[in-house]
Design goal:
With about 200 residues, this protein is an alpha+beta fold. About 35% of the residues lie in helices and about 15% in strands. It has 9 helices and 4 strands; from the N terminus they run ααααβααβαβαβα. The chain is globular, with a radius of gyration of 18 Å. Pfam families: Nitroreductase.
Length: about 200
């Protein structure tokens, strides 16, 4: 069986125009891309919990499961997020039906530092992104926010590290975005795999 042909056959047209795998992978990895345009459509609590359930099963060092999700699903909750997301990002995050702040607990059960807390939480984010895509949703991680204001507004304890805000919802039309964002509302490519591989050592 030619795996390359089978994976390419299920790519969406816009993805096929911008992405090509160096080696055969499941089309999920190519078809998922980060969108800024969101449809004005509710994400049900059940759907949101399904997305977060996938993150619950991410790989976890010593099964410490350091990830936490501050969920903004209602208008009142999203207004709190608007207090710390930077203005340029609010041009589109304000239209996402769900916002999540991804955190990680930095300590082990004995109070010692958990050196894998950020690594494991990155795996949880990937699980969110892929499960959302499987449900027909789009996601985008946002680093452009004020972490100190977020910590204060959301009353985040010191033992938690703040990572990214995740915008989640159904993908909307590119034309709903500001012109600058419209031009960037495309699946982006990746450098060649061999540029990321170091054989044995540097």
């Amino acid at each position: 069986m030619n795996m390359s042909v089978s994976t390419q056959a299920v790519l969406t047209p816009e993805v096929e125009a911008h992405r090509k795998a160096d080696y055969p992978v499941h089309s999920l990895f190519l078809n998922r891309w980060s969108s800024r345009a969101f449809e004005d459509k509710e994400v049900t609590k059940e759907t949101l919990n399904t997305v977060l359930e996938a993150a619950r099963w991410a790989p976890s060092s010593s099964n410490l499961q350091p990830w936490r999700f501050v969920v903004a699903h209602t208008e009142a909750q999203k207004q709190k997020f608007q207090a710390f997301i930077k203005p340029n990002n609010r041009l589109w995050t304000d239209h996402a039906p769900v916002l999540l702040l991804l955190l990680s607990h930095k300590l082990r059960q004995d109070g010692e530092p958990n050196g894998a807390h950020a690594f494991d939480t990155g795996a949880a984010w990937a699980s969110i992104a892929f499960q959302a895509h499987l449900l027909g949703l789009a996601t985008r991680a946002v680093g452009g926010y004020d972490r100190e204001i977020a910590r204060e507004v959301l009353q985040v304890p010191a033992e938690y590290e703040l990572h990214a805000v995740i915008a989640l919802g159904y993908r909307g039309a590119r034309e709903t975005l500001a012109e600058d964002f419209q031009q960037r509302e495309l699946p982006n490519g990746r450098r060649a795999l061999n540029e990321s591989i170091i054989e044995g050592s540097f």
